[in-house]
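Incident log, structure service

09:12 report received: a user says their structure output differs between two submissions of the same chain.
09:20 pulled the input from the user's history:
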Amino acid sequence: MFLIGVPPLIVLLVAGPILLPEFRNVRAGRVDLLSVALSTGAIVTVVYAIKETAKSGPHLGSLGIALVGVVLGWVFARRQLVLADPLIDLRLFRRATFSASLGAQMFGLFVLAAMQFLTVQYFQLVLGMSPLEAGLWMLPMMVTGIIGTLGAPWVVRHLRSGTAMTLGFAAAVPGLALMAIAGRLPVVIGLAIVSLGIQVVLALTYDVVVSSAPPERAGVASGMGETGTELGIALGIAIGGSIVTAVYRAGVPESAGDTLGGAVAAAEQLPGPVAQELLSVARDAYTNGVQLAVVVSAAIVVLLGVATATLVRTD
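09:34 re-ran on a clean worker, output below:
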């Protein structure tokens, strides 16, 4: 499965140095390893605290870990302001277009990653699909995502980037509304619409993030874009999954375990009627959690649409 990516990567490695223009900052500084450690520590501890809180509820351990993450993040931010060559140039956030575009990228991926992750789980654990069947039902989302990515350059030939981003987020809202209904077809169609709209946005954000920074900071801006990508995906899966876990735990008996997978395992040890009742309750609770995560995602998308409409200013 992974070998399918090798041929296009070979083409990229050969053609990239020839076709892709490159800009080098001759005064580029060294990577600050302490900043790398601080940023990694802040992200890992905060994500862990979120997941632990969803699993076990608020307690001193998770709150303490979250506090450690916040402190590490604060120290990291303070360090970036005094370094001559910061890992992340926080001064770029003074540019509204840069900040809004980076936020659109990160939280757009937050929503998309959460919806993809939860949909695959929903297909397998609630609707009873095999992994292969679930993967096949995800194909429409992948196709519309490709269409959105490849169609974005055509869109910006007719619209400003900020307007195109706003319309992309607006297109995702009815898709999320369909997903909130639950059921196979509403979720498949809804996710395909969400993927189409958000992939248009994502195809544009990298260009706007880099072009809105000074030329000598283009490399830093690109790196911040990549950081936003990874952080958005990580937080989307962590927070989206935590919402579902919290709702699930509130709606099932303790014997069902912390996850729907745990309920399925527990049901295998129970008599038929009791097992079916446990699975029915667990699946309903999980579905309710997914629906709440979809509603939260829809609210985020609406806010992102407003932000890109008002803050992203491009020619």
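09:41 both user submissions now match this output. Likely a transient worker issue. Closing.
09:42 reviewer note: The mean pLDDT is 85. The radius of gyration is 22 Å.
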